[in-house]
Amino acid sequence: DAGVTQSPTHLIKTRGQQVTLRCSPKSGHDTVSWYQQALGQGPQFIFQYYEEEERQRGNFPDRFSGHQFPNYSSELNVNALLLGDSALYLCASSLGRYAFFGQGTRLTVV
Amino acid sequence: DQQVKQNSPSLSVQEGRISILNCDYTNSMFDYFLWYKKYPAEGPTFLISISSIKDKNEDGRFTVFLNKSAKHLSLHIVPSQPGDSAVYFCAAIYTEHYYGNQFYFGTGTSLTVIP
User: Fold this and answer.
1) pLDDT class for B95, splitting at 50, 70, 90?
2) B36 and A35: CB-CB below 8 Å?
3) How much is the pLDDT for B112?
4) What residues of chain A lie within 8 A of the CB of B107, using their CB?
5) How many Cβ atoms are within 10 Å of A90's Cβ, its own excluded?
6) CA distance B2 to B104
């Protein structure tokens, strides 16, 4: 079992650009959540996808959007990047209470 | 508004001694709590959890204690080993979000176990 995989592992973007991050959930998991972890902070919930729909959303602006595909994989899109979007972005898949996290994508906005 | 707080950013403990990591929460709706461990360049990994109907859960060297009246939980690691050195996150969820698994995380405590 490959677990939760995220790509890319590192990314550098310029302010104002757009970025897409990808996540493949653990085998058998149908729910995918995205978290942003800023330096020195705990992960903050962005949103969650189930059955290809956004089911819950945290306190993040509309610049953050996502998608879930029929195979349960997911994308996180961020438009009009700001310097403050620099963070580790974590994907978590779940089936029940326990969430399994990927290794994250380190996004740096310059 | 930080609903889950870990007030100690770091902790150093000698190998073989007990490590105690603390976590406080403000939302009385939380009914399930988890501890995650994170190594650099890796995602958080699940360590141990506790339901709000219990006050203690033990798994090998790891024990989590919950004091609902104080809205406080702690993770005890006995004996501590150098491989336990990592950042530990406390997380909480509540049943309304059960299916959603929206975790509320603390800011983490960096544990260093000194050989």
Assistant:
1) low
2) no
3) 98
4) 40-42
5) 26
6) 8
